[in-house]
Amino acid sequence: MTAKPPEQCQTMIEVREGVDQVDRELVALLARRFGYMDAAARIKAERGAVRDEPRKAQVLDNVGRAAEAAGLDAARIRAVWNELVEQSIAHEFDRWDDLRA
Fold this sequence. Notes:
GO terms for molecular function: carbon-oxygen lyase activity; chorismate mutase activity. Residues 6-96 form the Chorismate mutase domain. Its EC number is 5.4.99.5. The chain is mainly α. It has a single domain (10-99), classed as Chorismate mutase (Chorismate Mutase Domain, subunit A), CATH 1.20.59. It is built from three helices and no strands. It has helices spanning 12-43, 53-69, 74-99. Helix 1 (12-43) packs across helix 3 (74-99) and helix 2 (53-69) packs antiparallel against helix 3. It is elongated and about 55 Å long.
């Protein structure tokens, strides 16, 4: 079942169906993103290369611009992405260690 677009929702049931559908889609995208973290852990020769602050800043800047372009609060979206990036780094450290254990 495909959820209605937000502007067509008339009930909270429809809203919740839409939110649940988006959440499933986001989880699928996060699985793909974390797959790239697995690849990075495999490729990076040094554990110290896992945390890359300049790259983190670039990702947050990119997301801030994309959020603004989409009419969203860039600061709020950057805050969400900051947590996502930190969790991605933690995952990459775990995978880096697992691959070399």
